[in-house]
């Protein structure tokens, strides 16, 4: 991730000014061409490829003189060259795959840029260049913070990913990676739903074109607005899609591939999601709807501390199980 930031904003952003996690590698936007002497040779090739050079030229053209003298570009101080190149190449491949499946657009600017803007003029320049931006409310950015001192690296990276339609990594368990769905995941999702028993108690997917449009809207509105939703579950060992799990507001949902049933995967993933909801949402409790014929899900819900509320969802013939997630001591084993 490459951060564009001016001197005034840098002094207010704790991630840079106080914690010194970032150090400016390009001293000033006005001196971009001369900065190459200060960078590692291995890094120069990636930094000054055709696309990034074109971005620098456009940035130079759009910046007023007073801003050009104050603008910095920063890299993580502890981010190795190889890690940077690997991340950039992978994100480029991900964006290409998404474009090929109809997912909006490939950014005009490199997907690894984000601009911490300090006024509307900078925000407008960022928009014209296709660069993700974040700032205080008066700057007019879609992603706003009350104070730049609230910024941290994770938030900046998530804004950058959301802007460039790169799915967020939600977290990891011992055996699983949980992340948002992207449209390039749809073929694997259909394979998952086609496995025996997967749709015995859940609705199947729509036809491909309908599902594609549904997921486009879901990514934009559910992930984009609420920052949670139904996520995908991948095996950390194989990288393969093995399930879905997540939050539909305060409802917990989960499904695991049948070849992995009775191996503790659903328990592992659901415990992660319950912890996630406790730490990242305002929900006092979670609920799940379970068909009583689904004995495995009933056992799992009880194991996770859910109890049958005595209420039914008659539309899908399901009992409603509930669990309080706030009044739990941090050291409680759940």
TrEMBL record:
The keyword Transferase applies. GO terms for molecular function: acyltransferase activity, transferring groups other than amino-acyl groups. The keyword Transferase applies. InterPro entries: Acyl_CoA_acyltransferase, GNAT_dom, N-acetyltransferase. This is N-acetyltransferase. It holds the Pfam family Acetyltransf_3. It comes from the Bacteria.
């Amino acid at each position: 991730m490459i951060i564009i930031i001016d001197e005034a904003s840098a002094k207010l952003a704790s991630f840079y000014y106080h914690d010194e996690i970032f150090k400016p590698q390009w001293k000033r936007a006005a001196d971009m061409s001369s900065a190459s002497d200060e960078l590692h040779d291995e890094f120069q090739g990636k930094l000054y490829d055709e696309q990034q050079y074109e971005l620098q030229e456009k940035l130079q053209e759009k910046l007023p003189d007073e801003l050009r003298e104050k603008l910095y570009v920063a890299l993580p101080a502890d981010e190795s060259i190889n890690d940077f190149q690997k991340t950039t190449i992978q994100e480029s491949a991900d964006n290409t795959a998404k474009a090929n499946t109809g997912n909006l657009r490939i950014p005009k600017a490199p997907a690894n840029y984000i601009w911490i803007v300090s006024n509307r003029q900078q925000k407008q320049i960022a928009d014209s260049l296709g660069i993700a931006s974040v700032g205080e409310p008066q700057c007019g950015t879609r992603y706003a913070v009350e104070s730049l001192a609230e910024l941290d690296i994770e938030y900046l990276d998530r804004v950058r990913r959301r802007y460039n339609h790169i799915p967020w990594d939600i977290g990891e368990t011992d055996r699983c990676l949980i992340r948002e769905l992207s449209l390039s995941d749809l073929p694997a999702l259909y394979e998952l739903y086609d496995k025996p028993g997967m749709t015995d108690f859940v609705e199947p997917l729509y036809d491909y074109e309908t599902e594609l449009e549904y997921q486009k809207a879901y990514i934009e509105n559910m992930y984009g607005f609420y920052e949670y939703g139904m996520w995908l579950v991948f095996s950390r060992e194989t990288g393969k899609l093995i399930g879905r799990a997540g939050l539909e507001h305060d409802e917990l949902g989960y499904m695991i591939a049948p070849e992995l049933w009775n191996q503790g995967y659903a328990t592992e993933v659901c415990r992660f999601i319950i912890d996630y909801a406790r730490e990242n949402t305002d929900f006092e409790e979670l609920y799940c709807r379970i068909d009583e014929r689904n004995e495995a899900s009933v056992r799992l819900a009880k194991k996770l501390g859910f109890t049958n509320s005595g209420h039914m969802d008659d539309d899908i013939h399901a009992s409603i199980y509930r669990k309080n997630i706030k009044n739990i001591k941090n050291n409680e084993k759940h």
